[in-house]
What we know:
lyase, mainly alpha, histidine metabolism, Fumarase C, Chain B, domain 1, Fumarase C, Chain A, domain 2, Histidine ammonia-lyase, 2 domains, single chain, 3-stranded antiparallel β-sheet
Amino acid sequence: MSAPITVTIGPDGVTAEEVLAVARHGARVELAPDTLETVTRVRAHVDELAASDTPVYGISTGFGALATVHIPVDKRTDLQRSLIRSHAAGMGPVVEREVVRALMLLRAKTLASGHTGIRPVTLQTMLDVLDAGITPVVHEFGSLGCSGDLAPLAHCALVLMGEGRATGPDGRERPVPELLAEAGIEPVVLAEKEGLALINGTDGMLGMLLLALADLRVLADVADITAAMSVEGLLGTDRVFLPELHAPLRPHPGQARSAARMLAALAGSDIVLSHHEGDKRVQDAYSLRCAPQVTGSLRDTLEYAATVADRELAAAIDNPVVLDDGRISSNGNFHGAPIAHVLDFVAIPVADVASMAERRTDRMLDVARSHGLPPFLAHDPGTDSGLMIAQYTQAGIVSDLKRLAVPSSVDSIPSSAMQEDHVSMGWHGARKLRRAVEGLRRVLAIELLTAARAIRLRQPLSPGAVSAALINALPAGVTALGPDTFLAPELAAAETFIADGSFLATVDGVLEAHLD
Length: 516
């Protein structure tokens, strides 16, 4: 049995892989050597300012539009507690556990940077909550992606105080004091500046971007193969995927990678070879011929977004921030625009890849364009409807994806009495991108099911080794030919086959043998 994974955080931050390990796989978190010493030293600057008569935002003043209100020393603990309680104002559906864990880890990463003025005990308590598997209940609505993901982070901070709502390691919601006591965690009483330090970050939208990037890299690989299967199902050619047509002529790295994967997936296909004899078609339809260009563009967009994410992982987002020389300065780094823009950007090629996959599916079901396949791949057309309505489902999802591709970041609703007069809406961009990831996976699952059945209908012609391996590995109902049956479970099985990693586990070894 392998040892538990431990992620170490400190001034150097964390990697995307470490965020995924904590968010999805329950990795434990510990502080790097000397981190507590650094945090303690920086905290001393905050304590010094707190004891002075000089007003400092977040330490001895109110917040947002109330920043001009001086707070006396005897009310500053109340100030921090009131900040968290009032900002924990989320509504709507509960956000997924993996998102909350990513958000908390990323906030802890910034707290450990030595730029927030947090006390060591507060930082350690957040890590203890994470390691105990306690997950604060965070809601869908409450962040405008500016001044940080305020409400989501406030719901997390409330749990550190022994308040709010949370679930335990078993996923059941129980009273927060009970969960903390069971884990041996003492609630914290927040001191000056700590309320802001806990909530003034872009951690939720960054966490969701990292999760989406991981999922979409997988789905780009899946899309190459389902597209190649559709080429086989439609008696298409593999010649348009030759390497000399891509990198030398149009040097987009994503396009070249997708073309190479499609070419390798079609290697040895008798179905593709049949295209060379007695076929009067000069060119395949765009949805077949141009698949590498579209999926490749998704790949390149993901790489750009990953560059932005890496920069954010190296950032320390707070306001005010403690500089290396001890000065505490207000700033605008909490504005989520850099993340919000790429969240919106990624949603566009996601919708486009799905749209192209739906067109291939529709072509396989249309007797006028499928080159010899039965209408809707039905066993007894008329009596049976085959996959007719599966394409309806796919089209409905694609329509939703097009709406989700409309950017959130071009919108802004001023808040806090016009003090916060331009916001990024990045949290909303992240939430819709998560929906888009699910939608793309379902669209590809329907293409997978359709192409697998179309290939089986091409017998006695045999597919390439990649398609053959997938058809053999898929649950029997997914590839079944014959009279109509209850279709929804088969669509769900195809989606699960992609989501649980079975698809790529089946493909990778076979594909590798044919890649240059």
